[in-house]
Design goal:
about 60 residues, mainly alpha, 3 helices, about 0% strand, elongated, membrane
């Protein structure tokens, strides 16, 4: 875990892509769940942030 956090601080692509993918998956989950309207309300924003983050992070060094 400590190595993962150190690589996040160094702006490495693999770790940030994992974070961006997790945000996209969280946004899709929030969009499909039938329980809470507030989660559904913010699902598009979370998915959009994850997608934009993934596009930016794909330009980071390996």
């Amino acid at each position: 875990m400590n190595q993962f956090l150190n690589r996040l601080r160094r702006l490495r692509r693999n770790e940030w892509e994992l974070v961006a993918s997790a945000l996209i998956a969280l946004g899709v989950f929030m969009m499909m769940q039938p329980f809470t309207l507030s989660l559904y309300t913010y699902s598009f924003v979370v998915t959009l942030v994850g997608t934009v983050m993934f596009v930016i992070v794909s330009h980071f060094p390996e």
